[in-house]
Structure formats: C-alpha cells, structure tokens
C-alpha cells in the first residue's frame, strides 16, 4: 500500500515522479492526497500509475471425479464455465484424467476419455503450463507403483499475456500420494543484455565526437562485411563507455537524490537546516524532476513494441507465440532441471548449485538461504568439503532474517543422515533416458512434453499431393484458416454467415464439409470414382471424416 500527499498532479514532471515511484516500489494499492485535479480521467490514472493495476483474471481449482461415468459431465461443466468466462482464465488441480499415453507408466488407458479431454482443451483454447520436476504427479504407493500425471494447470492466451514469466514446479509429496504443484507468477529468467541505442544521446554534447573516434579506427581486414561488423561493435562499445562516464545510471541518480532529500527532511524534523542544506534539498528536488522526465523518455522508447501489441488486437496471438518461443530459448534452465546427481565421494558435485539433495537444487527449496551465500562460494564449494566439519555453515554471511534461520535449521536436519562413499565417484544422471545417459534425441523430445498431438498430422504428410495442398489441409485441421470464428477470436469484425449458404455461422468445418453447397461438390466429385458413399454429412468434422474415409479407400 502506497499513500502520498503529492501536492498537485497538474504538471507533467510531478506525474513522471509519481510514475517512477510506483515502478520502483511496485505497490498493490496507491492512495493519493491533494492531487488538485477537479476531474480525474482514466488517461490521467494510466499516465501516473501505468496499466499494471487494470486487469482481472479468474482462477479455477478443480477436482475431477474418480469414476469414468461422471467424467463426461465434468468436462461438459468445464466447457460451460469456459463459455461464460470473458476474463483471463487459469484452471488447475487434480483432473483425474490424462490426454497422452505418456502420462501413465503402463498401457491400461482409456482412449475414449483421453480423446474427450483433448477435444475439450482444443475447443476451450487452453494451453498447458509446462511442469518442471517430476514426470508424474500421482502414485498408488505400492512396491511396483502405477504412476500418472493427473495434476495439471491450463491457461488461456490472454492470461499468459498478463503473466509471461510464470512457471510450474512439482514439490515433494510428503504425506500425500499427489505431488503439490507450485505456480510462480514472477519467475526471473536472466538473459545477456543487448546494446540499446538511446535517442536522447543525440541531444547531448560529445556524442558526435565519440561516434567519429569509434568509426575512424585503423583496420587490416580485407572483407568489407567484417570491417563493417567490427566498426558497429566498436561504436557500441565506445557509446556504452561514454554513457557510463557522462550520463551514468538515471535510475541510480534518481534513487540517490530521493534518499538524500528524505534524509534532509528527517533531519529537519529535529532541527533547522543550514542554508547550504536547504539549498541542496531544493536543488535535488529540481534535479529529481528532470531525472524523472529523462527516465520517462527512456521508458517510452522501450515501450514501442508494447504499444504496438496493446494497440492492435490481432497481434496478441503472435506476441504470445513469440513469448512462448522466447521461454524455450533458455537452454541452461532446461538442463538444470534435467540433470540429477548421485553423490559418491562428493568431490565433483557442488553443494549449493547442483541437484544432489533429494534430486533437487537447494536454490529451488531454500532460496533465501542460498542468497545468503556469496557467488564465489556457491560455484566452488563441493559436497565433500561442505559436509566436512559442517564447513557449509561458514559460507553464510547474512543478513540472517527469519526465513534464512528457518531454512538453515531445515537444511541442517536434512543433512544429518547424509553419508558419503569415498570408494565411489559422483555420477550425473540425465532424467529423460532410462539409462541416465544424455542423448540429443531425448533432449529434443523433452522440449515438447505437454503438447497435444494433432489428429491426422502424421498421415497428412505421407499423402502424395503438392505441398501447397498439404499445407492448406494442415492449417484447416488446426482451425487456423481465417474464417469468421477465428476473425472474431482476434477481434476482427466480418460477416458471420457462410458465404455459400448464408444460413449458418462460418467455420472451417462448415465451409469445407457441412455446408449444403460443399456437400454437393463432394458428392459429385466422389461419384465419378464410385465413392459416393464417402460423402460427408452435416455433422462431420474435417479431421475425423478424412481419417475414417481414407481407410475405406484402397491404396493404389
């Protein structure tokens, strides 16, 4: 909760200062006094506090019926709930159902219910949140257990746009036969910073001289492309160095100015400020207004892509797709979750960073405790040296908050039964192969865990037909042709009736199969080959009709 007497929000500089404060402290509620505004429009609110407060979403926690007879009604109820939900939707819980054969460790599966569950996910436009950790979430706790993945989380595309950095982890089952799932909405994925050109540099003194000195460097490379690449990299390096010396960090300067002003105002409560202190306070307040305006200029430059995304409704789909691909680029996160360590003598296994204790990294379960250890110690302390005379305790340097102390006691208790084997070496196990050995094929397949297979995709690409025909049919069975239902989903208005019959809503199944005109074309075409009995009906779906019909036609 942030409350502040702003003493007027009529000036742009004051609004920029408020915006920077909201960005810095990230409050859930903002309360302002003395805004001196007679009328406060939605535009004024967005300009002062941003768009981070203006959204809602609907979480739904479910428990699916354990008996097969009740599961179709359960899916129908979820379908009805999805139809009535107009806000971003998250649905998670124990579904007591699977939609992949790989979600169970034996062959005793109900393919009819799997198909119904898969159709519900496709009709509701739900995506599964990839689970990191265990492959299965339920066990019958027997000697040779039956394992299933029936605990899941699904979300809509607009929910993913609100929480692009979410991730799902499985935890230890402890006293249950189900593994608890932890959903984080603000997971941080580190990435190498790229060079960003600031447009306000052009108005600063010395900019042209820096570019000229970086561009006129002697080069011996004969290739023109190599010279151009080196000059661009050299210019970026010179501009970074010049910006650090001449401009510095705007955010750091702004925070420092705020801190000094606050300390002077705290001192003024106890005594009168000297003339120099009062002059410094006034100068810093004026400087903070200028820095806030400059920071807003930088943010506006960086938000151009965000504006395009929010200002053009059809781009939301492509933004979500690009965001999905961006998450998959973090190879190191995937490998950290894919390797476990079987500790022998503990010499080659790192105590703080490797997944050696119960198959998990300490940072995943005791994040506050690991943050109390320096980076150098995390990357050098082995399990053997850490357990010798409890040397890992000396790695902690604070601050020792209550969560750190609690996690310290938990870790100390868990380490009491740990015994190393000096005669055996440490072993790294790749969890995606039964042998424990890494392979490129298993890593590639692991990237696509959780996706739903497209019905008829394998059969389609085996058909002897021109590529453009197969590509169109592939888009059609995925319902990715721009018919009315897809245009409406992306916020584009168009005629909602079929262009052939002008009676029913236009969908890809209706346009290609169910329409009276389409069925007449199919009947006349198939009649010439003696296959009139394969003509589609008004209830057939494209992929199902094609797969059934192709089995009734003899191969040539």
TrEMBL record:
| InterPro entries, A to Z | Endo/exonu/phosph_ase_sf, Endo/exonuclease/phosphatase, RVT-Znf
Gene Ontology MF: a single term:
catalytic activity
* Top-level taxon of the source organism: Eukaryota
Reverse transcriptase zinc-binding domain location is 438-522
User: Where, by residue number, does the polypeptide cross the bilayer?
Assistant: none
What would be one Pfam family of this protein?
Answer: zf-RVT
The Endonuclease/exonuclease/phosphatase domain, residue ranges: 3-178
Q: What is this protein called?
A: Reverse transcriptase zinc-binding domain-containing protein
Taxonomic source organism: Dichanthelium oligosanthes
């Amino acid at each position: 909760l942030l409350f502040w007497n702003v003493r007027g929000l009529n000036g742009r500089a004051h609004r920029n200062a408020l915006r920077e404060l909201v960005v810095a402290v990230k409050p859930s509620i903002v309360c302002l006094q003395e805004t001196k505004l007679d009328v406060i429009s939605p535009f004024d609110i967005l300009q002062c506090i941003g768009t981070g407060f203006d959204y809602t979403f609907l979480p739904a926690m479910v428990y699916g019926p354990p008996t097969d007879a009740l599961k179709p009604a359960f899916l129908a109820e979820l379908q009805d709930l999805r139809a009535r939900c107009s806000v971003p939707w998250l649905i998670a819980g124990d579904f007591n159902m699977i939609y992949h054969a790989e979600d169970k460790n034996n062959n005793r599966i109900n393919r009819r219910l799997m198909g119904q569950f898969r159709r519900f996910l496709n009709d509701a436009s739900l995506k599964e949140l990839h689970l990191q950790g265990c492959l299965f979430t339920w066990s019958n706790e027997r000697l040779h257990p039956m394992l299933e993945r029936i605990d899941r989380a699904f979300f809509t595309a607009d929910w993913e746009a609100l929480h692009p950095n979410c991730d799902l982890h499985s935890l230890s089952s402890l006293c249950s036969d189900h593994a608890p799932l932890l959903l984080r909405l603000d997971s941080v994925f580190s990435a190498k910073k790229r060079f960003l050109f600031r447009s306000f540099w052009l108005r600063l003194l010395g900019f042209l001289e820096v570019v000229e000195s970086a561009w006129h460097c002697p080069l011996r490379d004969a290739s023109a492309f190599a010279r151009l690449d080196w000059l661009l990299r050299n210019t970026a390096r010179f501009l970074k160095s010049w910006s650090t010396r001449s401009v510095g960090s705007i955010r750091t300067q702004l925070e420092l100015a705020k801190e000094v002003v606050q300390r002077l105002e705290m001192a003024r409560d106890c005594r009168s400020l000297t003339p120099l202190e009062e002059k410094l306070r006034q100068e810093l307040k004026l400087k903070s207004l200028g820095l806030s305006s400059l920071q807003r200029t930088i943010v506006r430059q960086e938000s151009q892509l965000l504006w395009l995304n929010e200002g053009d409704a059809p781009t939301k789909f492509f933004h979500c797709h690009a965001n999905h691909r961006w998450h998959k680029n973090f190879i190191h996160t995937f490998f950290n979750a894919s390797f476990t360590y079987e500790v022998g003598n503990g010499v080659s296994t790192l105590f703080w960073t490797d997944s050696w204790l119960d198959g998990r990294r300490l940072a995943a379960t005791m994040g506050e405790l690991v943050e109390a250890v320096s980076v150098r110690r995390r990357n050098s302390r082995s399990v053997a040296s850490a357990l010798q005379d409890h040397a890992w305790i000396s790695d902690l340097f604070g601050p020792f908050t209550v969560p750190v102390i609690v996690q310290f006691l938990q870790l100390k208790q868990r380490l009491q039964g740990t015994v190393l084997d000096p005669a055996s070496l440490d072993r790294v196990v790749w969890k995606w192969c039964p042998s424990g050995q890494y392979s490129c094929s298993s890593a590639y397949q692991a990237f696509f865990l959780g996706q739903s297979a497209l019905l008829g995709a394998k059969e389609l690409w085996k058909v002897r037909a021109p590529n453009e025909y197969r590509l169109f049919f592939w888009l059609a069975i995925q319902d990715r042709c721009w018919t009315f239902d897809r245009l409406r989903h992306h916020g584009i208005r168009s005629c909602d009736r079929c262009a052939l019959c002008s009676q029913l809503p236009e969908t890809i199944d209706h346009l290609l199969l169910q329409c009276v005109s389409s069925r007449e074309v199919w009947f006349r075409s198939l009649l010439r080959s003696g296959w009139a009995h394969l003509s589609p009906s008004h209830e057939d779906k494209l992929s199902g009709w094609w797969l059934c019909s192709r089995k009734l036609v003899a191969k040539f």
